[in-house]
Design a protein that fits this description.
384 residues; alpha/beta; Rossmann fold; 11 helices; 28% helix; globular
Protein backbone atom coordinates (compact mmCIF):
# COMPACT_ATOMS: atom_id res chain seq x y z
CA UNK A 1 0.00 0.00 0.00
CA UNK A 2 1.36 3.40 -0.94
CA UNK A 3 2.45 5.28 2.18
CA UNK A 4 1.52 8.69 0.75
CA UNK A 5 -1.37 8.28 -1.70
CA UNK A 6 -1.80 12.03 -2.18
CA UNK A 7 1.74 12.27 -3.53
CA UNK A 8 0.79 10.18 -6.58
CA UNK A 9 -1.55 12.91 -7.76
CA UNK A 10 0.96 15.60 -6.83
CA UNK A 11 3.53 13.86 -9.02
CA UNK A 12 1.12 13.69 -11.93
CA UNK A 13 0.27 17.36 -11.52
CA UNK A 14 3.93 18.41 -11.51
CA UNK A 15 4.80 16.25 -14.51
CA UNK A 16 1.93 17.61 -16.61
CA UNK A 17 1.96 21.18 -15.28
CA UNK A 18 1.77 23.53 -18.27
CA UNK A 19 0.72 20.81 -20.70
CA UNK A 20 -2.10 22.81 -22.27
CA UNK A 21 -0.26 26.01 -23.21
CA UNK A 22 3.00 24.34 -24.19
CA UNK A 23 2.08 21.09 -25.84
CA UNK A 24 -1.38 21.57 -27.28
CA UNK A 25 -1.49 25.21 -28.40
CA UNK A 26 -0.16 25.92 -31.92
CA UNK A 27 1.11 29.42 -31.11
CA UNK A 28 4.96 29.29 -30.94
CA UNK A 29 5.08 32.46 -28.86
CA UNK A 30 3.31 31.00 -25.84
CA UNK A 31 6.62 30.23 -24.09
CA UNK A 32 8.60 33.16 -25.44
CA UNK A 33 8.56 35.26 -22.26
CA UNK A 34 9.95 32.55 -19.97
CA UNK A 35 12.26 31.16 -22.64
CA UNK A 36 13.93 34.46 -23.51
CA UNK A 37 13.95 35.88 -19.97
CA UNK A 38 17.66 35.33 -19.45
CA UNK A 39 20.60 37.22 -20.92
CA UNK A 40 22.73 35.46 -23.56
CA UNK A 41 25.11 32.87 -22.12
CA UNK A 42 28.82 33.49 -22.67
CA UNK A 43 29.95 30.04 -23.79
CA UNK A 44 33.61 29.40 -24.64
CA UNK A 45 34.51 30.15 -28.26
CA UNK A 46 33.33 27.48 -30.66
CA UNK A 47 31.32 25.56 -28.05
CA UNK A 48 28.05 27.50 -27.89
CA UNK A 49 25.12 25.19 -28.73
CA UNK A 50 23.80 25.93 -32.21
CA UNK A 51 20.20 24.83 -32.95
CA UNK A 52 19.49 23.30 -36.34
CA UNK A 53 15.73 23.14 -37.02
CA UNK A 54 15.06 20.76 -39.89
CA UNK A 55 13.86 22.26 -43.15
CA UNK A 56 11.52 21.24 -44.52
CA UNK A 57 9.98 20.32 -41.18
CA UNK A 58 9.67 16.55 -40.76
CA UNK A 59 6.37 14.75 -40.33
CA UNK A 60 5.63 13.79 -36.72
CA UNK A 61 5.48 10.20 -37.98
CA UNK A 62 9.07 10.27 -39.28
CA UNK A 63 11.90 8.56 -37.46
CA UNK A 64 14.31 10.67 -35.45
CA UNK A 65 17.44 12.05 -37.12
CA UNK A 66 20.81 10.56 -36.24
CA UNK A 67 22.84 12.10 -33.44
CA UNK A 68 25.94 11.51 -31.33
CA UNK A 69 24.22 12.48 -28.06
CA UNK A 70 20.56 12.47 -27.07
CA UNK A 71 19.49 14.67 -24.15
CA UNK A 72 16.01 13.82 -22.83
CA UNK A 73 13.97 15.85 -20.37
CA UNK A 74 10.41 15.57 -19.09
CA UNK A 75 8.41 18.55 -17.86
CA UNK A 76 7.53 21.99 -19.18
CA UNK A 77 9.83 23.71 -16.68
CA UNK A 78 12.65 21.35 -17.64
CA UNK A 79 11.98 21.93 -21.35
CA UNK A 80 12.26 25.70 -20.81
CA UNK A 81 15.64 25.26 -19.13
CA UNK A 82 16.92 22.85 -21.78
CA UNK A 83 15.82 25.13 -24.62
CA UNK A 84 17.33 28.18 -22.95
CA UNK A 85 20.74 26.49 -23.25
CA UNK A 86 20.54 24.28 -26.36
CA UNK A 87 18.06 26.02 -28.70
CA UNK A 88 18.56 29.73 -28.19
CA UNK A 89 16.44 31.57 -30.74
CA UNK A 90 14.09 28.63 -31.31
CA UNK A 91 11.13 28.61 -28.91
CA UNK A 92 10.33 25.21 -27.37
CA UNK A 93 6.94 25.24 -29.07
CA UNK A 94 8.83 25.35 -32.37
CA UNK A 95 10.50 22.00 -31.72
CA UNK A 96 9.57 19.17 -34.09
CA UNK A 97 6.77 16.87 -32.91
CA UNK A 98 7.51 13.14 -32.70
CA UNK A 99 4.99 10.30 -32.82
CA UNK A 100 6.69 7.58 -34.86
CA UNK A 101 5.21 4.16 -34.04
CA UNK A 102 2.72 5.80 -31.65
CA UNK A 103 0.03 3.20 -32.37
CA UNK A 104 2.23 0.48 -30.88
CA UNK A 105 2.66 2.48 -27.67
CA UNK A 106 -0.94 3.62 -27.28
CA UNK A 107 -2.46 0.47 -25.71
CA UNK A 108 0.11 0.69 -22.92
CA UNK A 109 -0.57 4.36 -22.08
CA UNK A 110 -3.13 5.32 -19.46
CA UNK A 111 -5.98 7.48 -20.71
CA UNK A 112 -5.47 11.20 -19.98
CA UNK A 113 -1.72 10.76 -19.53
CA UNK A 114 0.28 13.51 -21.30
CA UNK A 115 1.20 11.25 -24.23
CA UNK A 116 -2.43 10.17 -24.67
CA UNK A 117 -3.64 13.77 -24.48
CA UNK A 118 -1.06 15.17 -26.90
CA UNK A 119 -1.14 12.14 -29.22
CA UNK A 120 2.63 11.88 -29.50
CA UNK A 121 5.76 10.53 -27.83
CA UNK A 122 7.68 13.77 -27.55
CA UNK A 123 9.31 16.68 -29.36
CA UNK A 124 12.90 17.35 -30.42
CA UNK A 125 15.37 19.75 -31.94
CA UNK A 126 18.81 18.96 -33.44
CA UNK A 127 21.77 21.09 -32.32
CA UNK A 128 25.53 20.99 -32.36
CA UNK A 129 28.11 21.71 -29.65
CA UNK A 130 31.41 22.04 -31.48
CA UNK A 131 31.45 19.01 -33.76
CA UNK A 132 29.13 16.92 -31.56
CA UNK A 133 25.62 16.36 -32.92
CA UNK A 134 23.03 16.66 -30.17
CA UNK A 135 19.35 15.79 -30.24
CA UNK A 136 17.49 17.66 -27.49
CA UNK A 137 14.21 15.96 -26.61
CA UNK A 138 11.19 16.35 -24.35
CA UNK A 139 9.41 13.08 -23.60
CA UNK A 140 5.63 12.93 -23.18
CA UNK A 141 6.01 9.47 -21.62
CA UNK A 142 6.64 9.21 -17.88
CA UNK A 143 6.99 6.28 -15.50
CA UNK A 144 4.60 7.97 -13.07
CA UNK A 145 2.01 8.95 -15.67
CA UNK A 146 1.54 6.14 -18.17
CA UNK A 147 1.16 2.80 -16.44
CA UNK A 148 -1.82 0.59 -17.29
CA UNK A 149 -2.39 -1.92 -14.50
CA UNK A 150 -1.42 -5.49 -15.43
CA UNK A 151 -1.63 -7.07 -11.98
CA UNK A 152 -1.21 -6.42 -8.28
CA UNK A 153 1.71 -4.02 -8.15
CA UNK A 154 2.57 -4.40 -11.83
CA UNK A 155 1.92 -2.09 -14.77
CA UNK A 156 3.01 -1.24 -18.29
CA UNK A 157 6.17 0.83 -18.72
CA UNK A 158 6.09 2.31 -22.23
CA UNK A 159 8.87 4.81 -21.46
CA UNK A 160 11.31 1.87 -21.42
CA UNK A 161 10.38 1.03 -25.01
CA UNK A 162 10.58 4.73 -25.88
CA UNK A 163 14.22 4.78 -24.76
CA UNK A 164 14.95 1.73 -26.91
CA UNK A 165 13.31 3.30 -29.95
CA UNK A 166 15.23 6.56 -29.48
CA UNK A 167 18.54 4.68 -29.28
CA UNK A 168 17.73 2.59 -32.35
CA UNK A 169 16.66 5.53 -34.51
CA UNK A 170 19.36 8.03 -33.56
CA UNK A 171 22.29 5.63 -33.26
CA UNK A 172 23.48 7.81 -30.37
CA UNK A 173 26.51 6.62 -28.44
CA UNK A 174 25.57 8.71 -25.37
CA UNK A 175 22.15 9.28 -23.77
CA UNK A 176 21.69 11.79 -20.97
CA UNK A 177 18.42 12.02 -19.07
CA UNK A 178 18.08 15.34 -17.26
CA UNK A 179 15.61 17.23 -15.12
CA UNK A 180 14.54 18.30 -11.63
CA UNK A 181 14.96 16.28 -8.45
CA UNK A 182 14.62 16.43 -4.70
CA UNK A 183 17.93 16.84 -2.89
CA UNK A 184 18.83 14.19 -0.33
CA UNK A 185 22.20 15.56 0.84
CA UNK A 186 21.73 18.59 3.09
CA UNK A 187 24.87 20.15 1.61
CA UNK A 188 23.44 19.82 -1.94
CA UNK A 189 21.42 23.00 -2.11
CA UNK A 190 18.77 24.53 -4.34
CA UNK A 191 20.28 24.88 -7.83
CA UNK A 192 23.07 22.33 -7.38
CA UNK A 193 23.24 19.57 -9.99
CA UNK A 194 24.07 15.91 -9.41
CA UNK A 195 25.63 13.79 -12.14
CA UNK A 196 25.65 10.01 -11.78
CA UNK A 197 26.15 6.95 -13.97
CA UNK A 198 23.78 4.86 -11.86
CA UNK A 199 20.04 4.67 -11.21
CA UNK A 200 17.97 2.62 -8.76
CA UNK A 201 14.25 1.85 -8.70
CA UNK A 202 12.59 2.67 -5.35
CA UNK A 203 8.94 1.85 -6.07
CA UNK A 204 5.95 1.64 -3.72
CA UNK A 205 2.87 1.96 -5.93
CA UNK A 206 1.87 0.45 -9.28
CA UNK A 207 5.35 -1.03 -9.92
CA UNK A 208 6.08 -2.29 -6.40
CA UNK A 209 5.93 -5.99 -7.41
CA UNK A 210 7.86 -5.67 -10.66
CA UNK A 211 11.09 -7.72 -10.77
CA UNK A 212 13.14 -4.58 -11.44
CA UNK A 213 12.03 -2.88 -8.19
CA UNK A 214 15.03 -2.29 -5.94
CA UNK A 215 17.55 -2.92 -8.71
CA UNK A 216 20.42 -0.59 -9.55
CA UNK A 217 21.69 -0.10 -13.09
CA UNK A 218 25.07 1.39 -13.98
CA UNK A 219 26.90 2.66 -17.05
CA UNK A 220 30.64 2.24 -16.55
CA UNK A 221 32.34 4.80 -18.78
CA UNK A 222 34.75 7.69 -18.49
CA UNK A 223 32.35 10.60 -18.13
CA UNK A 224 34.11 13.66 -19.61
CA UNK A 225 34.82 16.26 -16.95
CA UNK A 226 37.11 18.66 -18.79
CA UNK A 227 34.41 21.31 -19.31
CA UNK A 228 32.55 20.98 -16.03
CA UNK A 229 34.46 23.87 -14.46
CA UNK A 230 33.36 26.03 -17.40
CA UNK A 231 29.78 24.88 -16.85
CA UNK A 232 29.97 25.69 -13.14
CA UNK A 233 31.23 29.19 -13.94
CA UNK A 234 28.34 29.74 -16.37
CA UNK A 235 25.89 28.55 -13.72
CA UNK A 236 26.90 31.47 -11.49
CA UNK A 237 25.24 33.85 -13.99
CA UNK A 238 21.90 32.42 -12.81
CA UNK A 239 22.64 32.29 -9.08
CA UNK A 240 20.27 35.14 -8.28
CA UNK A 241 17.41 33.20 -9.89
CA UNK A 242 17.68 30.48 -7.23
CA UNK A 243 18.19 32.70 -4.21
CA UNK A 244 15.62 31.93 -1.53
CA UNK A 245 13.64 34.88 -0.13
CA UNK A 246 13.67 36.00 3.51
CA UNK A 247 11.51 33.72 5.64
CA UNK A 248 8.90 34.41 8.30
CA UNK A 249 5.74 32.55 9.42
CA UNK A 250 2.85 32.91 6.95
CA UNK A 251 0.49 34.71 9.36
CA UNK A 252 0.84 37.00 12.38
CA UNK A 253 -0.85 34.36 14.55
CA UNK A 254 2.56 32.79 15.13
CA UNK A 255 4.64 34.13 18.00
CA UNK A 256 7.36 35.67 15.85
CA UNK A 257 8.27 39.31 16.37
CA UNK A 258 11.61 39.73 14.56
CA UNK A 259 12.43 40.64 10.97
CA UNK A 260 12.23 37.89 8.32
CA UNK A 261 15.29 35.65 8.26
CA UNK A 262 17.62 36.11 5.27
CA UNK A 263 18.81 32.98 3.48
CA UNK A 264 22.48 32.66 2.50
CA UNK A 265 23.17 33.20 -1.19
CA UNK A 266 23.30 30.02 -3.28
CA UNK A 267 26.36 29.21 -5.40
CA UNK A 268 25.22 26.49 -7.82
CA UNK A 269 27.65 23.62 -8.15
CA UNK A 270 27.95 20.29 -9.97
CA UNK A 271 28.11 17.27 -7.65
CA UNK A 272 29.72 14.09 -9.02
CA UNK A 273 29.90 10.45 -8.06
CA UNK A 274 32.76 10.24 -10.58
CA UNK A 275 35.73 8.90 -8.68
CA UNK A 276 33.85 9.46 -5.43
CA UNK A 277 34.44 13.24 -5.56
CA UNK A 278 31.20 14.39 -3.91
CA UNK A 279 29.49 11.07 -3.09
CA UNK A 280 30.33 7.38 -3.41
CA UNK A 281 31.17 6.20 -6.91
CA UNK A 282 28.08 5.02 -8.81
CA UNK A 283 25.83 6.42 -6.09
CA UNK A 284 22.49 6.03 -7.89
CA UNK A 285 19.69 8.42 -8.62
CA UNK A 286 16.54 7.12 -6.88
CA UNK A 287 13.52 6.60 -9.16
CA UNK A 288 10.11 6.49 -7.45
CA UNK A 289 6.55 6.07 -8.70
CA UNK A 290 5.20 8.88 -6.52
CA UNK A 291 6.38 12.33 -5.39
CA UNK A 292 9.17 11.64 -2.90
CA UNK A 293 11.64 14.14 -1.48
CA UNK A 294 14.58 14.14 0.88
CA UNK A 295 14.15 15.31 4.46
CA UNK A 296 16.53 15.76 7.36
CA UNK A 297 14.81 12.73 8.93
CA UNK A 298 14.52 10.13 6.13
CA UNK A 299 18.28 10.02 5.25
CA UNK A 300 17.81 9.07 1.62
CA UNK A 301 21.41 10.17 1.00
CA UNK A 302 22.45 6.79 2.38
CA UNK A 303 20.66 5.15 -0.55
CA UNK A 304 21.08 7.53 -3.48
CA UNK A 305 22.19 10.82 -5.02
CA UNK A 306 18.76 12.52 -5.34
CA UNK A 307 15.16 11.44 -5.88
CA UNK A 308 13.05 11.74 -9.07
CA UNK A 309 10.52 9.79 -11.17
CA UNK A 310 11.92 8.12 -14.28
CA UNK A 311 15.66 7.76 -14.84
CA UNK A 312 16.06 4.12 -13.80
CA UNK A 313 13.85 3.21 -16.78
CA UNK A 314 16.76 4.27 -18.99
CA UNK A 315 19.09 1.95 -17.10
CA UNK A 316 16.55 -0.87 -17.42
CA UNK A 317 16.14 -0.27 -21.16
CA UNK A 318 19.90 -0.22 -21.75
CA UNK A 319 20.31 -3.44 -19.74
CA UNK A 320 18.09 -5.15 -22.32
CA UNK A 321 20.05 -3.93 -25.37
CA UNK A 322 22.84 -5.95 -26.99
CA UNK A 323 24.90 -2.80 -27.65
CA UNK A 324 23.70 -0.16 -25.18
CA UNK A 325 24.86 3.44 -25.37
CA UNK A 326 26.79 5.06 -22.57
CA UNK A 327 24.40 6.94 -20.32
CA UNK A 328 24.26 9.23 -17.32
CA UNK A 329 21.72 11.11 -15.23
CA UNK A 330 21.93 14.90 -14.73
CA UNK A 331 19.47 16.13 -12.10
CA UNK A 332 19.13 19.65 -10.72
CA UNK A 333 18.04 20.25 -7.13
CA UNK A 334 14.68 21.98 -7.56
CA UNK A 335 13.83 21.43 -3.91
CA UNK A 336 16.42 21.21 -1.13
CA UNK A 337 16.33 18.74 1.73
CA UNK A 338 13.14 19.56 3.66
CA UNK A 339 13.13 20.07 7.43
CA UNK A 340 12.07 16.70 8.86
CA UNK A 341 10.90 18.35 12.08
CA UNK A 342 7.96 19.92 10.25
CA UNK A 343 4.69 17.96 10.56
CA UNK A 344 4.30 15.46 7.73
CA UNK A 345 0.53 15.54 8.14
CA UNK A 346 -1.35 17.43 10.81
CA UNK A 347 -4.59 19.42 10.78
CA UNK A 348 -5.14 18.67 7.06
CA UNK A 349 -1.74 20.10 6.07
CA UNK A 350 1.41 18.21 5.10
CA UNK A 351 3.86 21.02 5.68
CA UNK A 352 6.82 19.07 4.33
CA UNK A 353 5.08 18.35 1.02
CA UNK A 354 3.82 21.93 0.81
CA UNK A 355 7.37 23.24 0.95
CA UNK A 356 8.72 20.64 -1.51
CA UNK A 357 6.02 21.44 -4.09
CA UNK A 358 6.41 25.17 -3.48
CA UNK A 359 10.14 25.07 -4.17
CA UNK A 360 9.63 23.14 -7.42
CA UNK A 361 6.93 25.41 -8.80
CA UNK A 362 8.86 28.58 -7.88
CA UNK A 363 12.33 27.56 -9.02
CA UNK A 364 11.97 24.58 -11.40
CA UNK A 365 12.62 26.34 -14.70
CA UNK A 366 15.69 28.12 -13.33
CA UNK A 367 17.20 25.09 -11.62
CA UNK A 368 16.53 23.29 -14.91
CA UNK A 369 18.59 25.94 -16.71
CA UNK A 370 21.44 25.14 -14.33
CA UNK A 371 21.00 21.43 -15.05
CA UNK A 372 21.09 22.10 -18.78
CA UNK A 373 24.36 24.02 -18.35
CA UNK A 374 25.86 21.05 -16.49
CA UNK A 375 24.66 18.87 -19.39
CA UNK A 376 26.36 21.24 -21.82
CA UNK A 377 29.56 20.75 -19.82
CA UNK A 378 29.40 16.99 -20.37
CA UNK A 379 28.60 17.32 -24.09
CA UNK A 380 31.32 19.95 -24.62
CA UNK A 381 33.78 17.63 -22.91
CA UNK A 382 33.02 14.96 -25.51
CA UNK A 383 34.24 17.40 -28.17
CA UNK A 384 37.61 17.56 -26.47
Amino acid sequence: MLAHPERKEIARYLLSRGLDPVDLAPDPERLAAGFEAAAPIDFPDGLAPVPHPLSPAPSPDDQLPTADVVVITWTVDELTGLARVFSRGVSPTGWHRYRHNFAAFQPNIRGHAPAATSGRLGSYLPATVGTTRVLAMKSELHLNQDGVRTGEGTATLPVKDFFKQVVAETGASVVLTIGTAGSVFEEFELGDVVVTRAAKFRLQDEFRNEPFNGRTYTSDWALPSGRLNDATALMQEFADQVREPPFAPPTKRFAFDTAPIDAPANRPDIKLELGGRDMPEFHPILTTDYFEYGTSANHLEQEGAAVEMGDAALGLACSELDAPPRWAVVRNMSDPVINGDLPAKQFHLNEQTTWAVGYYTAYGQWTSTLGALATWGIVAGLDG
